[in-house]
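Fold sample X.
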Amino acid sequence: MFSRDFKTNGVEHLTTYLRCYKMGQLVDVKGNGAFQKGMPHKSYHGKTGRVFNVTPHALGVVVNKRVRGRIFAKRINVRIEHVHPSKCRDDHIARVKHNDTIRRECKKAGKPVPCLKRRPAGPRPAHYVNVTRNTPTFLTPIPYQFVV
């Protein structure tokens, strides 16, 4: 679980230590086997949480933990080596920026703003299948034959 991937052993990259974390930022907790200090428990490995405390070498992260049927918000302290910025909100932020640009362009042109909500794909329209070009294939099971 905490073992390093192939060809990723050795000294940790400087970006791990030079990265800035802010309160409220979403991070992924991923235990790094090369560093035992400040390592999270295995139950938090792979979880996404929100930063509530920043110290020189570690972060305080609020993570949801499922205990039997309930979900508790646990506060854990994890060193920077075991934390990565989460990419879970990238699609949401890109969609919000795109919607804002469309809204601004419509406002400049004086047009009404279209509905920018995501819509599920509706049912496909009705159509006829031409049997002369697409000959139907009949699927029948092969009869059992005992081969010696």
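Fold sample Y, listed below.
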Amino acid sequence: MAADERDYNLTEEQKAIKAKYPPLNKKYEYLDHTADVQLHAWGDTLEEAFEQCVMAMFGYMTDTETVEPVDTVEVQAEGHDMLSLLFHFLDEWLYKFSANEFFIPRVGRRVLFTQTPSGHRGQSHNLLGNADL
């Protein structure tokens, strides 16, 4: 087992699902933190980096490669800067996880960034929408 892989004690059914689909393109890693987990994600674009943050968060909870893709879920998040946007984006996915019968994304698709004027001292709000995972 590679150093970045975790042992999930998969059932035969989970192993079959994992073998059925191509491996996920993981552009993230977990870093040590004394009180929690620290996610380090990257991508070729900002949108891909956000997708990978979500995948890293769910990948820490479960082996996402054993998740059968059966549905598409959309979230929208807003933030006054990129850090708050990322926080709200992850928070929306955590809500989907806890409110929608433990929805777990297998792969991220179509993250769209738009910037809308806020009317406050030339600042703008970043809106993240149409994020299907």
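Sample Y note: The chain has three helices and five strands.
Also: The first helix runs from residue 12 to 20.
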